[in-house]
Amino acid sequence: PIAYHSCRNGEFEMTTNSPNNSFVQDGKLYLVPTLTSDVIGKAAVLDGFTYNITGCTAVNVTTGCGAVSNLTAGTVINPVMSARISTKNSHHIQYGKVEVVAKLPVGDWIWPSIWMLPVTDTYGAWPASGEIDIMQSRGNPPEYPAQ
Q1: Full-prediction pTM beyond 0.85?
Q2: Quick one: pLDDT band at residue 7, thresholds 50, 70, 90?
Q3: How far apart, in whole angstroms, are the C-alpha atoms of residue 17 and residue 10?
């Protein structure tokens, strides 16, 4: 899996290449959200810690591959870790059918999605060159009051 820090939409999660967040078991791919505090502790998420993502492939490695918590500045390290898989440098399609079978999680702070992104950024970086959303969902069921 290719993993990189996710800060496109100010999400609460960051993506990692940790086997805690992505793995294959019984022929199925699992992308699993976990709490950052389970790795670095709750105090570190809130103040005085620099977290650098191992295996990061962000365009700007200096700003896209880490986070700093600072209580005075009001910055926290993303409290949720998850995974992002990309085939950008290995597979692409021009015409055809894409079929996905997926089981979606339920819970706060979760925004599972399956996108098709262009191989090249002809019109500029995301989102200028477009995307096709195969699926996007909030992690809460319809009866959730904020839905």
Answers
A1: no
A2: very low
A3: 20
